[in-house]
Write a structure and sequence with these properties.
InterPro entries: ATP-dep_Glu-Cys_Ligase-2 (IPR051680), CP_ATPgrasp_2 (IPR025841), UCP005522 (IPR016450). The protein has 482 residues and is α+β, with helices and mostly antiparallel strands. The chain contains 13 helices and 23 strands.
Length: 482
Amino acid sequence: MELASSEYACNTAYDELLNSDLKPRPAAQPLFDYLDTLDKNELAARRQAVDATIMAMGITFTIYSEAGNIDRAWPFDPIPRVMARSEWEQIQSGLKQRLLALNLFINDLYNEQRIIKDGVFPAEVLTGSGNFRPQCVGVTPPFGVWAHICGTDLVRDRDGTVYVLEDNLRVPSGVSYMLENRQIMKRIFPEVFRTTNILPVDDYPTQLYQTLAALSPRTGEQPVIAVLTPGIYNSAYFEHSYLAQQMGAYLVEGSDLVVGSDDVVYMKSIDGLQQVDVIYRRIDDAFLDPEVFNPDSVLGVPGLMRAWRKGTVGIANAPGAGVADDKVVYAFVPQIIRYYLDESPILANVPSYLCMYDDQRDYVLANLDKLVVKPANESGGYGMLIGPRATPEERAQFAELIRANPRNYMAQPTLDISTAPTLIDGKLAPRHLDLRPFVLQSDKLYATTGGLTRVALRQGSLVVNSSQGGGSKDTWIVEDGE
């Protein structure tokens, strides 16, 4: 195995497995020792076994293209990302702190708006928000929680510092792949799990069920929980069906539900109508209820917002939670944490420039060749400019977009995000990656042990999204000294 040789070129980035002397980091020593016993042929055999397992398990994702919707096998790399438990516990505390503050913030925006009155959060940011839903004003969901499931993207910079890259509070996806990645690794590398104390992740479906069950308006009864999916052509349909199956919940489409004259949501079944207590929706706000949002939507349920406002059904994530899922709002999260919790942020934001402010916009326009520019409400890596890798024409185009709609853009320095060994064409090579842990909140807070590590499979690429050529790894949180 070539990890300890010059063939594994650790560039200037922080490597998750090896230090600058190509020695394994303490938490990664057992994995390093194991990999060192495998030759190229054995690594190739494990790679083939991974691919065969993915096909047998039917783990897919969908790419939308001009040629139509294409189902592809999940791109998985068998070399895991390793982190020490002591480091993870600090990160976990920061994730919980962040979601707690964001939910207080969302609830405040839809009610008293104290943070605006006190001059901590600018009114013009809310005015320009594409995800603020006036239909939600005056509502306080159970426990004051709007975002029950959050996928927070983390990156590590060259000096080893972990930063929050963004908060995904609308319909975050990927957790099913985190769970399946672990199952694949247990099949392919069972000997490592016998000798290394790798903390488990398989309690997530139970934790998700308990988070959702706490929202049921019918306390004391077994809640009826439904996962609301747009259908089989959605890119995350595998996840919708997987989570419903794992929780013992119903998988439904909008046409399977109806809101009665009593403003209660019912599910159609062969035995008649059955009351639904909690909906885990995997549909964007705009399509949830044609009576309130997009009247042309055939994905949602007419009257759903009436039922939710009346409190006869719980919805996770709540309509309107996306007001905090905005890359401009992101820049204010440190102040939001201090305002609501009177605490210093445990996790740092990436330094950010808001184009809505003249001086910051001037700086961004003058330094487009050095910055990453992001639109406020896009996801999946779409609509952004990676300045150092863009052409002069692309940068000029983006400058016009910024001038036309400054509120919609923010910029950050281009981070040299960390790498980890990845099996490419039979050899181990460094590839950039991020990490998406999942945090749950209803009556209590929970964060996954690790998360979904996404990796850019193309050399030098910083784009980790599977829809744009990225893959994933299992994430191992191990006891210190393992």
